Amino acid sequence: MTIFDENLILETINMIKLHNFDIRTVTLSISLRDCLSEDVNIVCDKIQRKLDKYAGNLVKYANEIENDYSIPIVNKRIAVTPISLVGEACKHKDYVKIAKTLDKCAENLGIDFIGGFSALVEKGCTQGDLGLIESIPEALATTSRLCSSVNVATSKAGINMDAVNKMSRIIKEAAELTADKDGLGAAKLVCFCNSVSDNPFMAGAYCGYGEPECALNIGVSGPGVVRAAILDLHKDADMGVLANKIKQTAYKITGTGELIGRRLADKLDIPFGVIDLSLAPTPAIGDSVAQIFQAMGLEHAGAHGTTAALAMLNDAVKKGGIMASSYVGGLSGAFIPVSEDAGMIEAASKGYLTFDKLEAMTCVCSVGLDMIAIPGDTPVSTLAGMIADEMAIGMINKKTTATRIIPAPGKGVGDKVVYGGLLGEAPVMPVNRLSSEGFVMRGGHIPAPIHSLNN
């Protein structure tokens, strides 16, 4: 006779019903390396057939798994080979046509987002990379599900400042072309240092060169579960006890996520890839990383001690996760997107959380300056300086960092951008008005640090 642990069953139910635990995303990683052709129309036809072949049942089977286990699967997504590579063989490099094909495929398949409109240019750009980058603003303005990313730095290669300068202009154009939607184009565009090829989260997901033909990557999320676990502790529990509680909670979350991922991969008859442990918040009350800081004892996100709290949270989540699974990958840790986290929105609106504090926090979090709205008249050179600073943090610390900054067209400090859904809303935050132009316009390469020479 099977013996059920009543307490464990009740705990799992509470995680889902009371504390917003969910599978944030199931992301099907699909290689498009066999879709190359000199004719862009043939490329688009091959892409459509490939996505239909592997993703045709993704939404159907994900919904079945969701019903079987009563665990919400919030987003169904696809990540493809960086499109700069796929379109480079075309005589006429019409990347916007490919973008629209990807977006239409996602719509037909019922997919929420499709990532991989990407280029990897940390050491320089090919003609294909340049073509894709220049097409990003129009591609994001004329699609609804497409997401784009560009890797401009690594710890091994240094920072490509020519690419940083180009991307600062592209971000501004993407925002301006979607001015009627508060600059939504920039909200679907991210610049990376040390991007990872198995990340299931948008906007940075793509299928890396070393990835298999197809695999299923899972992103779990449970900020509310972690917060509730911390609140269960005595308020005087020391840091070691606090860290252990977070690890134990991450262990439970990871095991549940891998179970769901493997079941779905089996139904799709494809390999299971990785489980990404990133605590990805939402605008929903109680599903906030910032509120975890308050449960730890800080008055609000932004107080002195916030960076230390985030460092401990990030580390404990990873330690708990790797004890539960041998397939932890992606980014894994804690995200701090301003617009997507109710507590971060409140902290930014009240002035508790500044741009500089957010930058400091990125030294210890999973990604970086994420979903931050800034005045629309911010100079392109200032944007380049912001990107360069964040890339430097990732390069020196050998970690993934990123910027997803939105220069909100026609808006200034005190205004608000509103996107709805998981993208949420955010106050327009003040930025340093000192000029960066003389520095960033030097261009060229910021060399990799000495510790990159470790072969």
Keyphrases for this structure?
about 450 residues, alpha/beta, Anaerobic Ribonucleotide-triphosphate Reductase Large Chain, 2 domains, eleven-stranded mixed sheet, 16 helices, 13 strands, disordered N terminus
In short:
The chain is of the alpha/beta class. It has helices at 6-17, 40-55, 58-69, 83-87, 95-109, 127-141, 161-177, 184-187, 223-232, 239-268, 289-296, 306-324, 342-349, 355-361, 380-397, 437-440, and strands at 22-30, 73-80, 113-120, 146-154, 158-160, 189-193, 214-221, 272-276, 369-375, 401-408, 416-420, 424-427, 445-446.
- Structure annotation, total helices: 16
End-to-end Cα distance = 56 Å
CATH names the topology of the largest domain as Anaerobic Ribonucleotide-triphosphate Reductase Large Chain
Helix content: 40-55%
- The global form is globular
**What's the total number of strands?**
13
CATH class of the largest domain: Alpha Beta
Commentary on this structure:
With 455 residues, the chain is α/β, with parallel strands linked by helices. The chain folds into 2 domains: 30-193, Anaerobic Ribonucleotide-triphosphate Reductase Large Chain; 222-452, Anaerobic Ribonucleotide-triphosphate Reductase Large Chain. Helices cover 44% and strands 18% of the residues. The chain contains 16 helices and 13 strands. Strands 1, 2, 3, 4, 5, 6, 7, 8, 9, 10 and 13 form an 11-stranded mixed β-sheet that branches. The chain has a two-stranded antiparallel sheet with strand order 11-12. Strand 9, helix 15 and strand 10 (401-408) form a beta-alpha-beta unit. Helix 2 runs parallel beside helix 5 (95-109) and helix 3 (58-69) packs across helix 10. The longest helix is centred in the middle third of the chain and has 30 residues, at 239-268. It is globular and about 65 Å long. Mean pLDDT is 90; it is low at 1-6.
